[in-house]
Each structure stands twice: as C-alpha cells, then as structure tokens.
Amino acid sequence: MPISTSPIPRWSSSVLKGALPGSWPLRIAGQGVAIRILGVDPGMGTTGFGLVEFENKGSLLYCESGVLRPRGTSVSPRLQHIFRGLTRLIETFKPQFMAVERPFFGKNVKSAMLLGQARGAALLAAAETGLEVQEFSPLEVKQAVVGYGRAAKEQIQAMVRTILGVRQALTADAADALAVALCLAHSLPMQRSLREALLTEDRKNRRRSARWTEKDLGDRL
Hints:
Blueprint: E1 3-5, E2 28-29, E3 32-33, E4 35-41, E5 47-54, E6 60-68, H1 75-93, E7 97-101, H2 109-128, E8 132-136, H3 138-145, H4 153-164, H5 172-220
Parallel strand pairs: 4-7, 7-8
Antiparallel strand pairs: 1-6, 2-3, 4-5, 5-6
C-alpha cells in the first residue's frame, strides 16, 4: 500500500528510549502527558493524514504527515486500502484522538457519495482500534487555524506550516489533515473546562440532594 510521508527531524527526540520497533509511546511533557492527535482528510483518490502532539501547557509539536494513495479502479479495494492504511498508522503512532472534517455536500452528488464512503472507512478504522473521533465543520477548521471561515487552501497550508514550524512543503491533503488536527487541539482546553464545570455542578447537585434528603428524614422523625 503506497504511503507518502514527510520527514520529521524533531520526532525522534520525543520518543521514549527502549521502545519496540514500530511502537511510539506517549511522550512525557513537563508534568503531564502530551496528547497525540491524528487528523484525517479522507478521499477516494488520496487520503491525507497528519499527527500533532498537544502538551498540557498549550504548546504544539509537529509529528508526522503524508498521504495514502489507494490503487485500483473499483471502490471496494480503495476503501480497503484506506482502512488498512489508517489502521496501521493508528497502531504505529498510538494517538488518543482522531479528528475528521465534517463533509460539506455540494451539488456533485457522485463526489459526495465517494467522499462519504472514504470517510466511513476512516471512521471504521478508528472504531476497530478503539480510537475516539471528533468531527469539525470546514468553517470551524478554518476559523481555528486561520481565524477566517472563508480562507483559501493556500492560506491554510501557510498557517499550518507557521503554527507547527514545518519547513518543508506540504501537500494540500496533508495540510488539511494537520489543520483538522489543530482544530481539535485548540478545542481541547475548552472541552476540558466544560467537563470540569459539569462535574463541579453535578457534585453540587448531589450534595444539595443529600442535604434535602437528610432534612426530609429529620422532619419525619
């Protein structure tokens, strides 16, 4: 299965010593563990992928990017190549999240159907490996990376390279995959704050409920 990747000069320094060949363990970042995110830009012709690490202090590290190029003229073997290629990437790099762009359906129904099938293969690879998936609209991705919802692909590529400090050129598919991974990375602090707020409110409600139960029992006695 042909897989094209971009070289990563900084990745080797982030891997723990003593790792087995083909195994990429979590990297310890300061006082916490860096979260690894796999971004995927599914497509029947080429499927872009990009891996970034998000540290607890908010810094981002570029890890890997490239494209899967499934061969064949029929749909079934292409979907099989996408599924197997992403499964291999997940098992090798062991991300904690997969980020996928929510499809924008235009007037071309055939293209939309093919995109949906490629996206389904990506989601199945995540499900089979127990990987959590989060989806974002094209508008959310562009706003997170460029700050403008109508940004062109060239602007996205330039901003992705700037944010992650990538010197080499990126293909459009790899840049889009990294962009959706960055969108998830930017949303993680907000999601964590929301979860903490919900947990705090839940604990308050439980304590309030317990106090009312004790009061009700006291009145009955």
